[in-house]
Amino acid sequence: MIIAIDGFSSCGKSTIAKTLAQILKLPYIDTGAMYRAVTWYFLKHQIDIKDELQVYTALNHIILRFVRDGDQNVLYCNGSPLVEELRSMEVSNMVSEISAIPEVRIKMVTLQQQMGAQGAVMDGRDIGTVVFPDADFKFFLIADPEVRAERRYRELLEKNGTTSFDEVVTNLAHRDHIDSTREHSPLRKAEDAIEIDNTFLTRDEQIAVILKYLNSESMPGQK
Asked: What is the pLDDT of residues 143-154, one digit of tens each?
């Protein structure tokens, strides 16, 4: 079974997808972390994203894989685990631009399809439209922009007290625009996806809503 969970930044997609995967005993694939890993690599190696040869060469040197560590699914890039590095503001400020590069998306989509071919819960922005358009279940998470910014701000404060709320608001608006307007696999809700507004929902409430749909015979797109 393949479950696609798409939506805007800071809608809690990863938390919900990870919890759901544990409940259903399915692999969890954090596609957002994969794009963040590519962004981290590009920044670390000062790749000129306007230079196609540099981009192509860099992508051929990036090897990504998930390794289970207790209840965590840690992403390794070229043999090194990446955790805190992926959530830095520096990476957040560039991930949408780098994710919009066609060569990057082609490589990541191919890798994601290979990882999830035997069944998985995957979250991202184009899972139900591009990566697995025939997914058994599709969900699209939304939330009020201010609530999303507050969630992201609290998350960053726990790791880096220098981030301002205004910076987070600007970053999310910037990412929303790029993700929704990019030419290659833009962020959009699949026609047969179920939209869930989680502005006022807890994690457990969201999981309950999704499980209700999973157990329903009337779920659009259900195989």
From this structure: 999 999 999 898
How far is 190 from 180, CA to CA, in rounded Å?
Answer: 13
Task: Decide the pairing of beta strands 64-69 and 72-77.
Answer: antiparallel
For the chain, the residue count is 223
Is 163:155 a contact under the CB 8 Å cutoff? no
> Any idea which of 107-111, 178-182, 198-202 has the lowest mean pLDDT?
178-182
138 pLDDT higher than 70: yes
Single-letter residue type at 105: R
Q: List pLDDT tens digits, range 56-103.
A: 999 999 999 999 877 778 999 999 999 888 988 899 899 999 999 999
Asked whether the beta carbons of 137 and 6 are under 8 A apart, the reply is no
Q: What are the residues facing 28 on neighbouring strands?
A: 121
Among 31, 17, 32, CA closest to 137: 17
Residue 71 class from Cβ within 10 Å (0-12 exposed, 13-18 middle, 19+ buried)?
A: exposed
**Paired sense of beta strands 120-124 and 80-82, if any:** unpaired
Three-state secondary structure call for residue 122? strand
- C-alpha 19/C-alpha 34 separation (Å) is 19
Question: Which CATH superfamily is 2-214 part of?
Answer: P-loop containing nucleotide triphosphate hydrolases (3.40.50.300)
The amino acid at residue 90 is E
Dist. CA 185–CA 119, nearest whole Å: 22
pTM of the model: 0.88
Per the DSSP assignment, residues forming a β-bridge with 2 are 120
